[in-house]
Amino acid sequence: MANSRFEYVKLFERENPLLPDTYIVLRVDGKGFHKFSAHYGFEKPNDAKALDVMNQAALSVMTKYPDVSMAYGDSDEYSFLLRKSCDLYERREMKLITTFASAFTTEYYYWWTQLFPEKPLDHERLPQFDCRAVVYPNFQVVKDYFSWRQADCHINNLYNTTFWTLVQKGNLTPQQAEQRLSGTLAADKNEILFSEFGINYNNEPEMYKKGTVLVREITEPEKQEQLSDRQKQREQKKRRKAEIKTLHCDIIKDDFWQQRPYLE
Amino acid sequence: MANSRFEYVKLFERENPLLPDTYIVLRVDGKGFHKFSAHYGFEKPNDAKALDVMNQAALSVMTKYPDVSMAYGDSDEYSFLLRKSCDLYERREMKLITTFASAFTTEYYYWWTQLFPEKPLDHERLPQFDCRAVVYPNFQVVKDYFSWRQADCHINNLYNTTFWTLVQKGNLTPQQAEQRLSGTLAADKNEILFSEFGINYNNEPEMYKKGTVLVREITEPEKQEQLSDRQKQREQKKRRKAEIKTLHCDIIKDDFWQQRPYLE
Amino acid sequence: MANSRFEYVKLFERENPLLPDTYIVLRVDGKGFHKFSAHYGFEKPNDAKALDVMNQAALSVMTKYPDVSMAYGDSDEYSFLLRKSCDLYERREMKLITTFASAFTTEYYYWWTQLFPEKPLDHERLPQFDCRAVVYPNFQVVKDYFSWRQADCHINNLYNTTFWTLVQKGNLTPQQAEQRLSGTLAADKNEILFSEFGINYNNEPEMYKKGTVLVREITEPEKQEQLSDRQKQREQKKRRKAEIKTLHCDIIKDDFWQQRPYLE
Amino acid sequence: MANSRFEYVKLFERENPLLPDTYIVLRVDGKGFHKFSAHYGFEKPNDAKALDVMNQAALSVMTKYPDVSMAYGDSDEYSFLLRKSCDLYERREMKLITTFASAFTTEYYYWWTQLFPEKPLDHERLPQFDCRAVVYPNFQVVKDYFSWRQADCHINNLYNTTFWTLVQKGNLTPQQAEQRLSGTLAADKNEILFSEFGINYNNEPEMYKKGTVLVREITEPEKQEQLSDRQKQREQKKRRKAEIKTLHCDIIKDDFWQQRPYLE
């Protein structure tokens, strides 16, 4: 075949199969979403409908890939947890991260057209996401990973809420608001909101303060370590059928995890 | 900061910077396009408008990333060549492949809405692409890589053209057509087309036989090896402004490459 | 400096830091030890003094690197277990494996000169070892790894013992012995040894049947997860001073591991 | 077989095959040679016999592995160049670097016993080397790599020569000598040597100033790109028989390379 003398070029391809028996986190992250949100006039500090596009996209991705146990997202990012025994694409890193980057992008696009029919996406500002994989060898680090993202959400949201209150209700320019907040601690920001604007941060919507947790509720997971092929298929089917709950709860404290031992 | 005790989880992240001074090929590949093309009723063996969506998406990606020197695509795949000195995302593999997978996906979606306004994309069958990076140390292998893809395009297109002619004009069932072609050589297929259906394969459209080549026409590239930062910026600007030509020509023979020394 | 214009070549260097919080096994393996043992006239099936060179070399390596928790060796190979929190050479794979390959080689050479003063090493047949690193995410796999090596030791030793008994006492040629053993099970080999030569395999020396286990006996390990720098130094000192025991015991059953929780 | 239930642990092993059609440099580097040279009383600034041990070890390694085209060493390090088409150990990085680390170590030990029979190696101070692989995609970078090492040799040797002259002939303490040289340029050091001690640095031995180059002199290399298996064997035999020359010449200028096109 004429083709065969060129096929040696395949020898330059490389794969990176991720370590077996470890948790994989795939995190997708919006590209240039600062400009994206400005371009489409997102409400500040949070645009409920735009967040809904993110959440619907993540839910669709999680529905499509039953190996995803849970997901957590806020702002323009989402983290997907693949269970320890996951063998999707033989755990090949390149395949996993590009598949999730593409799946999230296409779902975001789709849900945008559904939720913002009045705002068609412009060619010069299309939604785009990168993705990375991180491998975690035990469940404690996995919990700490999600705690890290939720703590980050809290820090950002408190800042943004105070910043935009100063701008929108306090009539400060963005520069003045930034200067005002420079060097302040969480308590200071809470105090500004409360004493100057009568806003109790604790009463802000949970989705903004805590982000969004998607969790596949497996009521009766298989208990054995080693499953036969037939058992694996049954397990996979069970995962496909399991309900995916959407929550805006605390995942830093132990409660969330203790109630869901099947995530481990 | 409350966040800091969790930040150690970042230590588990890994990067793979691709070898400097080598050519990078990024190849995006459609996921499940057999079913995708059936779902949306693509014309067989080739759907000119669907190929146009691919080509427009590739052209948009290439316009956005001036480090892409050329691209080649056919069917549901596209290969992008990054020039040897490219330092996009510090050549981090994960970032490059997920960015291109996402960029291609979002552009494909966009161009689909433009070219197929009568066929909105259905949620159960959205376009999706994976991507891989391959590193090539010298230009001979790069040429052989693109020759490999074009030879592959030719083999597939000759097969598909004959197959669908047997089905559409010869009234064979797909199974019968497959059986008929089993074990045939290129000459046999040409003969079937010509003697049974009066079709001269050579007269088929060039885009179907040769695929599509996008090439950035740099008329006056910088000649020095080592460029200053200002020279690099000027070079980058020149690349941005350079015209991208769309061709359906032979890239296996030397002519194409000899006429474009700036690709090397 | 004249040197600086060449220093860019360092940009092509790559590192692979092994995943944190995982067990690392470094396995050194003799190169061409079949010919090596023939050249120096090793006793068959086992040469006690040659095994002693291996064991002394491993003990010296383990003494030099306190991060090694235990080691297991038989024939011409040795596996070293680095504890989960080990940060030796920042866990850089290349540095770890080449350091252990070289350390084992130089120690083997040294102990050979001590134990075989009458057989100086010949230039055409010097001892050489390669080394690989394997990362294990949990302790169950670590135990299974060492079980794998010990099971392998048993299988080889039973074969070799029977083979050489057939040759040395049964006057078979090596070819005849090989043929005789082809397709036999463990029970068959035990039976040959016992009924034909009056040898009870169970009475063979433990070192030959079980291989050699080196274990660092930490009587009071630090219990906390997170140690201060001072605590880490104290821990390291404790590890340096801890006795390294040499055993020839079963490590497939749970007893060995249950008695040494500090290995985990 | 009892062993089989443990064999899954092999799934955790990883390989890194180095990119085909690129030059591989393997650099071995002494571990703690500052203390090593003090322990065994090396002459300062250069110990001719100790350098001879390095050179003999490198020559032996190069003789054993015909894929090594050339080597360059000074002080306690040696760099080996593997030719572009080298397929030794299928280019597996771990295997290559641990094999060379071990081979160099065992040869160093051997040649030490030959050249320093009066100084047997002490257990507390055995020679040890690490090794790294660097992949270079074209010959210009390879030349720059070796230029980098030779420039480094020159800088170090000029410093050391001046430093030890100040100590040995100028009766300065090491601290005073270090202070005296702090901030000096090459010209300053040449001047100190000449005006204060009558030493013309240019007349110092070439081996000290230039390091040592080992080069496999292939008088009639195969010219074709693609060799049959039989041609490969003939080529390999030719490489084995080719003379290895030991030089102390300049490899920064082009002459050395132009005279040896077969290195490329």
TrEMBL record, chains A, B, C, D:
Keywords: GTP-binding, Magnesium, Metal-binding, Nucleotide-binding, Nucleotidyltransferase, Transferase, tRNA processing. InterPro entries: Thg1_C_dom, tRNAHis_GuaTrfase_cat, tRNAHis_GuaTrfase_Thg1, tRNAHis_GuaTrfase_Thg1_sf. This is tRNA(His) guanylyltransferase. Coiled coil: none annotated. The keyword Chloroplast does not apply. The keyword Metal-binding applies. It comes from Diutina rugosa. Mg(2+) 2 binds at residues 29, 76. Its cofactor is Mg(2+).
